[in-house]
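Here we describe the complex-level prediction in full. Unlike the single-chain runs in Section 2.1, the two entities below were treated as one system.
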Amino acid sequence: MSMRQIQLNVIDLPKADYTGGPSSLCPGCGHDQISNVIIQAAWENGIAPETIAKMSGIGCSSKTPAYFLGKSHGFNTVHGRMPSVTTGANMVNKDLAFLGVSGDGDTASIGIGQFVHAIRRNLNMVYIIENNGVYGLTKGQYSATVERGSKKKKGEVNENPPIDLCKMAINLGCGFVARSFSGSKKQLTALLRAALSHRGMAVIDVISPCVTFANNDESYRSYNYVKTNEEELHAVDYIPHFTPIEEVEIPEGEFDDIELFDGSTLRLETLGGDHDPSDAVAALAAVHDAEQNDKHVTGLLYYDSKMKTADEALGLTETPLVDLPEEQLRPSKVALDELNQSFRT
Amino acid sequence: MRMAKTVNDFTINIATANGTGSQSANLILLHSMFEMGVPVSGKNLFPSNISGLPTWFIIRASDEGYQAPGDTTHVQVVMNKDTWLADVEKAEAGTIIIHNMDVKLPVERDDCVVLGMPMTKMARSINPRLARMIANMYYVGALAETLGIDQNAINSAVAQQFKGKDKAIELNLQAISEGREYARENWDCDIGYAIEARDKDPNTFLIEGNEAAALGCIFGGINMLSWYPITPSSSLAEALIAWLPKLRQADDGGATCAVIQAEDELAAAGMVVGAGWAGGRGMTCTSGPGISLMSEFIGLAYFAEVPGVIWDINRVGPSTGLPTRTQQGDLNLLYEASHGDTQHIVLIPGTVDECFEFGWRAFDVAEQFQTLVFGFSDLDLGMNRWATAGFEYPDQKLDRGKVIRTQEQLDAIENFGRYRDVDGDGIPYRTLPGSGLEPILYRGTGHDEDGIYSEDPGIYAATVARLKRKIEGARDLLPAPILREENDKQVGIIYYGSVENTITEIDDILESTTGLKVSTCRVRALPYHSEVERFVAEYDKVIVLEINRDGQLYGILRKELPVEHLSKLHSVAFSDGIPPRARVYAEMILKTLTSDTTEVIA
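The structure predicted for the assembly as a whole is:
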């Protein structure tokens, strides 16, 4: 009998406890790579699956919560409205770790209002946009994030300027804004692990090629195009709070460490340029410059940990509201008698 | 020469401009009469505007307890130059017209009793800066003097209105006292109408339906309020915001209910669904335009079986309609909101006591049936003040429904599935996020009994059939109708909601003009209780009375009652935005009863 050693994470769970059902997306879809990164990141971070809530809207990307974290509750809601459902759930159970998955149609068009307001409130969640520039489920119409000059497989070149969700998030004061590529597994995993260690809204805009409708070379979101036009701000390493720092490979050149909410560290190794993620204007400039040159800039664009989250700002009691006993939810009969009396006099 | 005085049976109409502080003056009048034990009601007809547009406040004193605006105005106060001529012109002969002489517009009515007072000038002499607002207190003084309102009652009403603001109390009392004095010295103070004290139940007080509903929600364990401002529902949310810290603080000083002002009604509804999905008690309040926007989420809550509560304080539709006027025009919308086949539970209070009761009960019903529950009120009930003897404490513990919270509970269920009907009542069991018990991905797409995506025709048909059975099963567990039955089973009237405030007077008019004794049945929930069908079965003719154009409850009854009863049903429906006047509806009922038969009214 052969012994196969099963690797366990810090809470003694195998990776199998983080997987989901089989994907029904097109073979090669960037979204499936992102699902695998989600599985990997949640497992490596040692998050108990039952404490995660998977949230999504409608679209190819929003179907994916069925394909990862099968031991977590989830809600595949309505088109563009995942943030509001997440807000309501977060208010009554602030101890859940909310992981939202959305697409570019879901977020940049129908749901742009809810995206904006979830950021404005600093809702405590990770918000992943699986961004391919097209509506897949309705067979390949352009979405609002597609670059000017880009062309999908069928149809005309897009002439409308794109809505850049990272620029938008930075302008709105989001405390964690990153861009990545579904094909950059190492970078995306480190960024997602850091986002999961962050408290507050963490937006990760992931370029995720649509293999069916926009993987032609004239598409700025095809695999080939992104691979040759990606500009990484820095190399990233995630160092969990439960791992002694010596075990991590220390990069040779210069690096900056970002202390995350749960005590983990995101190590940014400078590559050529010198991006300071605490500088919002520099982050906007980096995105702007890339856009001017038809490039994709990736990495941690902006980081600020000082803001209160939506639930903190409301001064909620320590216990999650769903766990409060009846005595805390319904005032006493005496309280009602006194209330009636106060109206009488 | 005057006739004998009319005591506690007249209507005062006060015409002012919005934003001039007249609401305080009007509430002081209302409360002072109430303080004297006189049954009184106040209706605020206000514009969709903050400052300058016309407002009318109608106070009706009635020993009979009639609460609708009277058909005749007996005392007309005119303060607003913009409506002055029309207000003066529409007064019936014999009306007492009290006017502010400083407006300097004519009151040419030889057939009325015209009483002028330089209200602005007098107000300016005691406080030039606040003269515009204080001028209103002079008509309070004038009416107090001419009607014989007790000064102690005035004092107490002023103190209540300006709680703790000593300066304001002093200033307004001075103005009222000067108004009294002027009336005494310059007018013939026997105007033929008088307020006389009655024995007041010391337990009673006046309160708005929206505040009562808000308090009910607090006693119902609300965990999350999401709201988007819209008249006439904003005051419900604002009452919750005001009362929550006083009634629902946790031991650590933290809040036990999150309040979020949403970016729009879509988000407000989404937050309710999110809160319910996570196991909390979420509520939002809105009006018709908000319900239209929320409809997508309402369908999701229905299909994914997520509890939640939405209060609709009905205003006049369609579209933006008349935003500050009242109607019962949303009933159909609520009952079948969202696309596809849906059916929602609607609780319909008719009194402020029921606003409170349904405020807490709605959460129990929502969790019991794992569905969205509407509270259906309207501007008249929600934003005007009504009497109550005090709210009653809930007679049952919180009903959290079929929630599995432990592994033992889960193990006790054979073949668990989120949407499997284990008990045969159409209501499945659910587990909550965070529990680690039987997690599923909730969805608005087709799903099987385990919650797995499915397009299977048999599974879809079985799912929607179960949903229908589930809501059907609620009928007799929801608040039963309030019946007032006569021995004579000729005519029954079915009505709901704020028509409660007018029904007694309608009933009296019908009896006094035709001798007809009608029975009444006030529906308090949809789907309607089996008692409603029993009521219809027993009467020769049944009038369905409502404040809308199309007879919306009439339509629901026609759809759901057995076909043999349908020929008995007659719709009497009318809405012009003004709270229902009894005579208008009584005449429509009489016309309906006489139009197609001569048997009933012999």
